[in-house]
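Title: Request for sanity check on HTH marR-type domain-containing protein prediction

Description:
We are preparing a figure and want to confirm that the structure record we downloaded matches what your pipeline produces today. Could someone re-run it with the sequence below and paste the raw C-alpha cells into this thread? We only need the C-alpha cell string, no images.
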Amino acid sequence: MLIQALKPHGITPSQAEVLRLLQQHGTLSLSGLGQLLVCESGTNPSRLVERVVAAGLVERRTDAEDRRYLHLSLTPEGERLATEVAGIEELLYVGMDAACEGLDTDAMLTFLHRFIDPLPSGEALNKRLDLG
C-alpha cells in the first residue's frame, strides 16, 4: 500500500524513509542516518543517499574539519516531499488503527517486538524509538 501511495511522487519507501528521518532529526551524518534506517539496516546506505541527492531531495556536504564525513540535509524540495510523505504515513496509520479495532493491541505489539527485535531492522527501529 505504501509503495502505491508513493509512486505518484516518484520515490520508493526506502527513499521516503531517508526524507522522513532527515525531516525529524535535521542534519545527519551518513553513518548516523545508516544507524536509524530500518529499510537498509546492516548495509551501507551510500547508494540510497546517492539516489535522493541525484533527485535533488537531499544536500550532501563534506565536513569542513574532516573530509571523510558527510552531512546530509533536506533541500526545500526534499522538505516539501517529506511533508507529503508524513501525510501518507498518517493515512496508513489511521487505516491500521481501524483494522486493529477490537484486537488486544498490547499482545499484538509484544508479538511483533519478539519477532522483529532480534533482527537488524528491529535494532535500528528500537534505536530510532529511543531517540524519539
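Thanks, this matches our download. The chain has one domain: 2-131.
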